[in-house]
């Protein structure tokens, strides 16, 4: 059976957060992508893309998927999902990889998954403001890239490229050389531009 990635999506999911990582998982690493939404209905991303759901959160393969990925959306901020959070905590306790980016880190914060391990998000204040159960301040990393302890991958919403690489490395650590090659490809654009975005607009 092919390896499986379970992707948790809410309405208003941020396209750029999962856009880079899904081709890496599916095309390069051969994973089957299974999407889940709260009610099984399609969600519309910030960019207007309609994504069909394979299942609902309640029945999504959380325990046995090769990776569970939580994509950011403003919907994660005001509300929790205690049943989902318990399943995510059980998966983390079993040493099974979970990846979360932007507001997708909030379910992990609420579940206590981040309290004892290095992690990041949009900001420390973002976690504290939106997840009263969070007590991981001592392990928070204030960085602009993804953070991984080998099991839990977290990233700010502004770091989709390093997030994609960290997720790939968590799923297939034996293929680290390919992950590095992907990163080298992704970073070339930013290195070429530096801080001079005006290069894009002139010959």
What's the short version?
The protein is of the alpha/beta class and 203 residues long. The protein has helices at residues 15-18, 21-28, 82-93, 106-111, 124-130, 160-171, 176-193; strands at 4-8, 32-37, 43-44, 50-51, 55-56, 67-70, 98-101, 147-148, 152-155. It has seven helices and nine strands.
Task: Give your account of this protein's structure.
With 203 residues, this protein is of the alpha/beta class. It has one domain: Rossmann fold (3-Layer(aba) Sandwich), CATH 3.40.50. 33% of the residues lie in helices and 15% in strands. Helix 2 (21-28) packs parallel to helix 6 (160-171) and helix 6 runs antiparallel to helix 7. It is globular, with a radius of gyration of 16 Å.
End-to-end Cα distance, whole Å, is 49 Å
State the low-pLDDT regions, or none. none
Instruction: Name the CATH superfamily assignment.
Output: Class I glutamine amidotransferase (GATase) domain
Structure classification: alpha/beta
Helix share, percent: 25-40%
Radius of gyration: 16 Å
By CATH reckoning, the class would read: Alpha Beta
Instruction: Let me know the largest β-sheet.
Output: 7 strands, mixed
Average pLDDT metric: 94
Report the portion of residues in β strands.
15-25%
Number of domains: 1
At CATH level 3, the topology is: Rossmann fold
> What's the number of extended β-strand segments?
9
The number of helical runs is: 7
Order of helices and strands: EHHEEEEEHEHHEEHH
Could you say which overall geometry the principal axes of the C-alpha atoms support?
globular
- For the largest sheet, list the strands in their spatial order: 5-2-1-6-7-9-8
- Which architecture name does CATH use? 3-Layer(aba) Sandwich
């Amino acid at each position: 059976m092919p390896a499986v990635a379970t992707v948790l999506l809410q309405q208003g999911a941020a396209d750029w957060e999962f856009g880079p990582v899904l081709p890496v998982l599916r095309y390069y690493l051969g994973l089957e992508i299974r999407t889940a939404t709260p009610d099984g209905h399609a969600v519309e991303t910030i960019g207007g893309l309609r994504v069909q759901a394979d299942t609902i959160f309640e029945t999504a393969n959380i325990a046995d998927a090769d990776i569970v990925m939580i994509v950011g959306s403003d919907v994660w901020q005001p509300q929790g999902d205690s049943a989902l959070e318990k399943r995510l905590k059980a998966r983390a306790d079993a040493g099974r990889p979970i990846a979360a980016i932007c507001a997708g880190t909030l379910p992990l914060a609420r579940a206590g998954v981040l309290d004892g391990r290095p992690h990041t998000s949009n900001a420390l204040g973002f976690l504290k403001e939106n997840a009263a159960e969070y007590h991981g301040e001592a392990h928070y990393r204030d960085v602009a890239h993804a953070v991984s302890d080998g099991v839990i991958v977290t990233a700010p919403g502004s770091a989709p490229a390093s997030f994609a690489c960290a997720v790939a490395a968590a799923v297939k650590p034996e293929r680290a050389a390919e992950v590095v090659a992907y990163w080298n490809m992704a970073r070339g654009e930013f290195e070429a531009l530096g801080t001079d975005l005006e290069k894009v607009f002139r010959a």
